[in-house]
Predict the structure.
Amino acid sequence: MFKIIGTGSYLPEKVMSNFDLEKLVDTTDEWIRERTGIQERRIAQDNQSNSDLAVNAAKNALSSANIKPQDVELLIVGTSTPDYAVPAVAPIIQHKLGCNNIPAFDINSVCSSFAYSLITAAGFLNSGFYNNCLVIGSDIYSRILNWHDRATCCIFGDGAGAVVITKDQSTKGILSHNYGAKGEDAELIKIPVGGSKYPAHFLHNNYKKEDFYFQMAGLDVYEFTIITVPRVINDLLIQANLTIFDIDWVILHQANIRIIESVSKKTKIPLEKFIVNIQKVGNTSSASIPIALDEAVKQGKIKRKDKLMMIGFGGGLSWGGLIIEW
Ligand code: UT7
């Protein structure tokens, strides 16, 4: 049993429009809008790191939950772009927030990281270990993108979102969850060089320049997604003993408007129930669900007792979905 008692988000000030991208790579505003739904995205300033974005989102979430940093007992950060390869970014965020000495760790399941983190946090609360937990999704993909690769650099943006969850007997909390990975396709989304298998300093490997950057086999991932997400929705509904008519809101990872439209069509969940902000923020990876959630809460869309479905998907290839009672 848990309740989300606060949400927060943070977007860097700098807006990069599709027209700005036209000056960088061989693309058009029309192509990006028609194929993805994106019109603009935010890009962090050079002096901002992932932890800075995360701290801003977390402060907003703590203030909307009306709790102090000292009341947080567990911090989980979903991210695939931590400040450093080592250590995790969560302890850095913990220190900047003043949640001193609490357990703080990262979960990296790429764009599913926030969903994985929320499911993990709920498990800790249900186990009775903690009462208050801060869950953040924060990513700064502008730092790992190949700005010469139009197939990826036009899609992503930077941002962070956060929720405070607390043990609560008055709501049911998670009604169902479903997460997993199709590891055989793990290499469809990757940064080939810079990990421990191919370290950047192994110069004898004569790496290609593009192998230092984020790469995605877009079409294959698209096909994985439009098959996987409807299946996950079906499984979530069966596990929760609900039908599509019981669901008030759906927040899918904001990867592509065409994915959202396809899922709506396949599952017969009306498009109006999907919370969509991809046009303004692009794909912010693990931040996309908590940013969209925060906006919907602030707009007064989501009301107590509403049933909300959230599903992340992406690198791994992973997926993570849950239905919660708000
Ligand atoms: O967040 C993690 C999960 N990610 C996803 O779920 C993403 C899933 N994939 C997608 O959303 C889409 O596959 C993309 C948006 C990434 C790409 O859209 P697409 O319609 O699948 O394009 P494509 O990769 O099949 O490429 C079609 C054509 C290619 O040109 P040729 O080879 O047919 O001449 C690309 O080079 O479109 C070209 N293209 C572009 N053209 C103009 C790719 N990117 C661009 C671009 N501007 N930005």
About this structure: Residues 27, 31-32, 35-36, 111, 150-151, 154-155, 218-219, 221-222, 225, 255-256, 259, 283, 313-314 surround oxa(dethia)-CoA (CB under 6 Å). The two ends are 11 Å apart (CA to CA). The chain has ten helices and 13 strands.
